[in-house]
Specification:
Helix content: 10-25%
Strand order of the largest sheet: 1-2-3-4-5
Low-confidence stretches: none
Order of helices and strands: EHEEEHEH
Distance between the termini: 43 Å
Largest sheet: 5 strands, mixed
Number of helices: 3
Structural class: alpha+beta
Shape: globular
């Protein structure tokens, strides 16, 4: 038997119609305290830009950007559900967000060493970063 093809993936910057039920569990692998679907939706709606990948009405990936709207932007979150990884969804999300922010001077992000090669192959450059996290927040 031939495996079924994955559903068609659509992408949208319009997150206004999403509800918590559209944000399935499975995101935030390895996070000490992942956000609830309600908090996740607040993050998407509160971002300068948020782009979601949808399959059959369900969010399977997303990327967010925060910005001053003039010169700089920061991409804090890029997530693709584990079962949807390996199909190019993350690459499409990054490229479309880069296009959306193309009029800005800089777009920055911080990532763990294990995912740095993903950004390398998309043409990003490595730089030093400093972070502080409050894992009990979400």
């Amino acid at each position: 038997m031939t495996p079924a093809a994955p559903p068609e993936t659509t992408y949208t910057f319009d997150v206004s119609g999403l509800v918590p039920a559209d944000l399935p569990g499975g995101f935030f692998v390895g996070w000490p305290s992942p956000p609830s679907p309600e908090k996740h939706l607040q993050v998407l709606r509160g971002s300068y830009r948020a782009l979601v990948a949808l399959e059959a009405g369900r969010v399977v990936g997303f990327i967010t950007a925060i910005s001053d709207g003039v010169a700089t932007a920061f991409i804090p979150w890029l997530e693709v559900l584990p079962e949807a990884q390996g199909r190019g969804i993350g690459s499409v999300l990054v490229r479309r967000m880069q296009d959306e922010l193309a009029d800005l001077y800089s777009i920055d992000l911080v990532c763990d060493d294990g995912v740095a090669p993903f950004y390398d192959q998309l043409g990003w450059h490595r730089a030093q970063a400093m972070i502080q996290r409050n894992p009990g927040y979400l």
